[in-house]
Amino acid sequence: MNSDNMELLLIDDDIELCELLIEYLATEGYSVNAVHDGEAGVHAALSGEYKLVLLDVTLPKLNGFDVLKKVRQTSDIPILMLTARGDDVDRIIGLEFGADDYLPKPYNHRELVARIKAILRRGRTPTADTEQRVLSIDDITLNLANREAMIAGQILELTATEFMVLKALIEKAGELISRDDLTQIALSRRLTLYDRAIDMHVSNVRKKIGVRPDGAPRIKTVRGAGYFYIRP
Question: Is the pTM of this model over 0.85?
Answer without folding.
Answer: no
